[in-house]
Amino acid sequence: MLWKYWSLFWTNWLHLLLLLTIQQNKREDNISILRLPILKDIACGISKILETELLVSPNTPFCNVCSSHIDSDSELTISSLGRCLIIQLNRFIITDGVAVKNSAPVICKSEIELVTKLEQEVSFTRRFKLSGLINHSGTLERGHYTCIVRDGDIWWHCNDRAMVQTSLQNIDLTLPYILFYTAV
Predict the structure, then answer these.
(1) Looking at 28-32, 33-37, 130-134, 161-165, which range is the least confident one?
(2) What is the CATH number of the domain that holds 151?
(3) Which three-class secondary structure state does DSSP give residue 176?
(4) What's the rounded Cα separation, in Å, for the pair 110 and 129?
(5) Judging by DSSP bridges, how do beta strands 84-89 and 31-36 pair with one another?
(6) Where in the sequence is the domain holding 15, given as residue range(s)?
(7) Quick one: DSSP state of residue 61?
(8) Tens digit of each residue's pLDDT (9 = 90 or more) over 134-149
(9) Residue 129 clears pLDDT 90, i.e. is over it
(10) pTM for this structure?
């Protein structure tokens, strides 16, 4: 199945993985995307974006009655997840007005669990299995993207010149740029 998409890889690797993901999940609305900060592991990144944040002026709601900003909290909850979960690690950051790459290792697991909260007291856990990842080597000025994708039980490492069969044990899961997970 994967070989018929090979020519697409030459023009755009992301389209290849999205195409495989959409084909596997049949509908685009089955896709959820999370953008995470670089922390020691994926679980820490997810916890970080779900933390309650104290908003301070000018990032607070403006009250027209008292003509001032009102201190408030902001909290993100995950209320639903598609069959495909795409996690983008924020590897490119702006420091002192200069864009730099954050190459810190992040522990990524081949299976993860996420909790969705429907209401205050109701939550569900959903398991996801790794189905692909995109790596970036090099710097912002000069770099190279490769992808690793699972087709059934077979893993393929794809770059500009070839697709090579590999195994999950041979994949470096500490420096990905984008991870693709499929619900189990």
Answers:
(1) 28-32
(2) 3.90.70.10
(3) strand
(4) 6
(5) parallel
(6) 2-50+78-183
(7) P
(8) 988 887 778 888 889 9
(9) yes
(10) 0.73
Q: Is 68 domain-assigned?
A: no
Backbone dihedral angles phi then psi of residue 29, each to the nearest 5 degrees: -75, 0
Query: Cα separation of 41 and 48, whole Å?
Result: 11
Rounded (5°) CA angle 146-100-12:
25
Q: 184 to each of 3, 108, 112, 131, how far by Cα in Å?
A: 24, 17, 10, 11
Residue 7 carries which side chain, given as an amino acid letter? Answer: S
Classify residue 174: in a domain, yes or no.
yes
Tens digits of residue pLDDT in 59-94? 777 778 888 777 777 777 676 777 888 888 888 877
CA distance 81 to 128: 10
Tell the residue number behind the tokens 């924020």, with chain if given. 90
pLDDT value at residue 11: 38
Which residue type is seen at 104?
A
- The rounded distance, in Å, linking the Cα atoms of 137 and 160 is 13
**Which residue is listed with tokens 């909790």?**
115
- The C-alpha atoms of residue 25 and residue 172 are separated, in whole angstroms, by 26
Which residue intervals of 26-155 are DSSP H helices?
Answer: 42-50
